[in-house]
Structure formats: C-alpha cells, structure tokens
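thought: fold this chain, then report.
action: predict
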Amino acid sequence: MKVLLPFLVLIVAGATTATAIFLRPKPESREPIVTTTPIQAMVADSRPTQLIVHSQGTVMPDKEATIATEVSGLVIDVSPRFETGFFVEEGEVLLRLDPTNFEAAFSEARANLLSAETALIQAEADAEQAIEDLRQVGIENPSALARREPQLEQARLLVDSAQAALDLAAMNLERTQIKAPFAGQIIETLVDKGDVLAGTGAEVGRIFGTNEAEVRLFLSRDDLTHLKLPATPSAINAAPEEKPKVTLTAGEGNNLVERTGWIDRLEGNTDSVTRLRGAVARFEDPLAIHENEPEAPIAFGSFVRAKIHGDVLPSAFRIPIVALVGEDKIRIIDSENRLQERTVTIRKRNGTDMVITAGLKDGELICLTPLGAFVPGMPVRIEDNGS
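observation:
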C-alpha cells in the first residue's frame, strides 16, 4: 500500500484536472479593435499663386538735409514754423539775416556795371571814329591796334566782369533768406533770433522730406530667385507702377498699420558679413499729411515687416508649413483612410506656409497634424477637414 498510494493520488489528480479542462466554458468570440489616430487635414487645391518674399526694415525719409548758411550775418527774423515738428513747404523762408551789407554790395555792383556799360559805349564810338579817320587819310587795311580793337575787347570784358559781380551780389542778398530745400518736417533747430552766423556752412537745423519714405530690406540669394527687382538703369528709372509691389505693416492687433509701396531699386553690393543684398522699398506720404482721408502715419524710425510680391506661378499648391515632413515630404490620406508619405517639389517656403509645384494632385487629402510616430498605412480618423 505504501508503494501504490502515491501513484493512486497522481492518477486521481490527473483525472480531476483533465475533467476540469474539458468542462471549462468556451470564451466569447470578439472582433479585433483597430485603433485610429485623430488628425486634421485639408484638401489639395491648385490655383495661380504669387510667390511672397518676407523681409523687414526701418522706415527712413527719402530726403534728409542739414540746413546751413551760405553767407554770414545776424539773424534778425525767425519763422514761427521753424520749430521741431512743424511742416514746411519747399522754398519757404525759415530765417532772415541782416541784409544791410549785402544790399550795399549789390548797389555798388550795379553802379560798377552801369559804369562799365558806359565805358563800352564810349569804346565802341572811339573804334568807329578811328576807322573813319583812317579811311579818310587813305588807309584801307589798318591794324587791329589802329582800329582800337584791344580797347574795345577790354571794355567788353569789364562789362562781363561787372555783370558777374552783380549776379553774385544779388545771389548773396537772396541768401540772407534761408529757405527750406524741400517740403518736409523740421527735425532740429540750432539757432534763434539774435544769433550771429559766421561764415558759410554754419548749421541752423535739420529737415526730413515727407513726400516719400524708404525702407531698406535685406534679401538672401534664394529670395532673389523668386523676384524680378529693378537692377538695371532702365528698370530703376521706370515708373513706380511698373515695379514690384511690396506690402509694409507696422504694429500689432488694433494698432496694425498697412501701406502699399514698390521696390525702387536693388543695391549693387552684398553685405560682407551676412551675405545678404539690400533692396530699397518706397511708399508715399508716410506721415499721412497729404491724403483727403488720411491713413494712420508710420513715423520715421518705425520697424516694419515687408511682403514683396514675386513671380506668379500658373498652378501651384499653397500648403501650411506644419504639413512638411523632413525636407521635402508630406503625408497623404488615401481612400481607405490610411496615411502614406509622399515626396513633393517645394518652390518656396517660409515660417507659415510652402508652395508646392509637383508631387501632389487636386482633391487629395493632406495631413496637417505632426505625428510623433508614423507607420506607412497606419489608419487615421479625420477630425477637421479644412481647406
């Protein structure tokens, strides 16, 4: 019994286990659960597309001048508009210097001219009389000296010299009125009534032109491939409406100001440090003082963002940059809602979007959701089919 008992226990246990396995309930059959990834997508839609190049710069006046004297003298009158911030017109008198000495010089020059003209009349009469006297004594071919031609030429030169002196005196008298060289805004004044300005070149103030403003924009070599900017004499001299357009914006939100201008010219040099090339944009009436319904002004020194209108492609896709995978790939949702990767040709890209010219068809769905993990053919669920 001691030998057989362990074997009997094993037999009974095995039989019990086999019976339990045979009689256990069968599990229910279920369909496998397929997990889909939610994404956002847009429909590919090709259309004529204008390439836009972005840049930025600072607004500066197209004209800037230091107003200086051309004669010396005492300031006896100052225009009430010769103050910082006032607008003046071209040729407007800003300062007047004491004209006494210049009026005296003008009168003296005029008297000298009258005297020289009188001497010329006398010299002409003497020359005619000399020729007549020589003819009467039978001299048909007298010398130039006998005809008094040197005296006559000297008299003519004295008249010319006196006329030049009179012109200079008149100009100096006119220069006692210091005028605005162009229409603009006074930026700085350096003198006042009672000041004595010694010599030519004494600075009296500074003025900015207000008819147009300039913005210097820096562009990369890649940017320039998408633009046709004025770089030749004929292109630079063309009318503004024939040049590439540029949209300039300053400020943010409710304070956003937008102006339309043009690229006036492309500079001939490349910056030795940044390797960027400068283009000069211009726009009219920066301070909004000439419009019937004035726009918001853009003050000189303001920072602006620029969008330069470049080449127009007959057919291209403009896609948000979030759809880009790597350097030149996007992901397409196929007819079975599975994700596939596609290589495309990108003509232009920036921080917000890209322009695709090949590798994509109208009507295809483009994935706009960046995915941390991607497997070709993975199932997806479109939550927002935007455009």
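thought: worth noting. The longest strand covers residues 303-320.
final: tokens above.
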